[in-house]
Specification:
This protein is an alpha/beta fold. The protein is built from eleven helices and 18 strands. It folds into two domains: 152 residues, 2-Layer Sandwich (Endonuclease, Chain A); 153 residues, Endonuclease Chain A (Endonuclease, Chain A, 2-Layer Sandwich), CATH 3.30.870. The strands form three sheets. A nine-stranded mixed β-sheet has the order 10-9-17-15-14-11-12-13-18, with helices on both faces. The chain has a seven-stranded mixed β-sheet with strand order 1-8-7-6-2-3-4, with helices on both faces. A two-stranded parallel ribbon has the order 5-16.
């Protein structure tokens, strides 16, 4: 397992893996934009496809709506469209699997800004336990499209010890178990009543909680909702840090276990999106924690003086946030 935080390094890793493919390439991506960076990747995919290598690229209809005409021209591209009964579902997972031997689970979409300006994380996996889980995920996505199986639309966690499970329940479980420290890094922070109760309970028993969000998220509404949700867990043991630039990393640490991948810390990822994240244990947890601490050191602490204003906004919009 290798964790890559540098965007340029992650992009080079993608190119190297795509060029090294001998039998198959399987990709799942929420957003694809044909800028010069991503065009280079698709040039490699086109070339590999022409050589006879089996190439499959799944893309979300909503996230890729601008690129659908160009994607549809490639016979190896497949569009994910949610069932009418789950029209709010998105395929938000970002994953690459080459020859069923090496996989990458990431928070990065196929757009130039994710490899140049934005902070994010990618995990390269080549161990048997994780590859088995990634293969299960590919089959689940393939079968969903053909109607051979149903996908319930909830987030999944790649955990070799417990197979696939909901990231929402993973968070609830490990927030409740935490004894020392919780770090939540996400561009979006929107919680429900159960999550609020557990975070407050953890803070009450002395657990140090640090939340890292971008100072200026991609969407202005997200900044407002983040601030509003901070009020739900206002506590002396809770610190909110606002990172400079666009911080898009989705990484959480609970004492000696971490989770990194595509899932944000919000209700959409908890309940409506198809996601993929990786459970990290042992020495690799330290790498994640060290990176997040470095980000926090270069961030600005949230000013709780704004609490009265934000608290008013919270009560006015809490019901709307349950839908997001």
């Amino acid at each position: 397992m290798r964790i890559i935080f540098d965007g340029e390094q992650a992009f080079s890793e993608y190119k190297q893996l795509l060029r090294s493919a001998k039998k198959s390439i399987w990709i799942c991506m929420y957003m694809i934009r044909f800028d010069d960076y991503i065009q280079e990747l698709f040039d490699i995919l086109d070339e590999q496809h022409q050589k006879g290598i089996k190439v499959t690229v799944w893309y979300d209809a909503f996230g890729c709506f601008r690129s659908i005409p160009r994607l549809a021209k490639r016979e190896y591209c497949r569009m994910f469209v949610p069932r009418i009964t789950r029209i709010n579902t998105r395929n938000h997972a970002k994953m690459l699997l080459v020859d069923k031997k090496v996989g990458v689970v990431s928070g990065r979409n196929f757009t130039k800004k994710y490899y140049q300006k934005w902070q994010d994380a990618s995990i390269v996996l080549d161990d048997k336990k994780h590859l088995v889980e990634l293969l299960r995920f590919t089959k689940r996505i393939d079968q969903t499209h053909t109607g051979d199986a149903r996908y319930d639309g909830v987030t999944r966690v790649t955990d070799p010890l417990r197979r696939h499970r909901s990231v929402y329940h993973f968070f609830l479980e490990h927030i409740a178990k935490a004894k020392r420290e919780i770090i939540i890094a996400s561009p979006y922070f929107v919680i429900d009543d159960a999550m609020e109760s557990l975070l407050k309970a953890a803070a009450d028993k002395g657990v140090k909680i640090t939340i890292i969000v971008p100072a200026k998220p991609e969407h202005r509404m997200a900044r407002t909702f983040n601030r509003i949700n901070f009020q739900r867990i206002y506590h002396k043991n809770v610190t909110v840090m606002r990172s400079a630039g666009m911080f898009h990393t989705k990484a959480m640490v609970f004492d000696d276990i971490a989770l990194v991948g595509s899932a944000n810390f919000d209700n959409r990822s908890f309940k409506y999106a198809m996601e993929l994240s990786v459970v990290i244990e042992k020495k690799d947890v330290g790498k994640v924690k060290k990176h997040l601490e470095e980000v926090a050191d270069h961030s600005v602490k949230y000013n709780w003086i704004q609490r009265t204003y934000d608290n008013l906004l919270f009560h006015m919009t809490r019901h709307l946030m349950e839908l997001l």
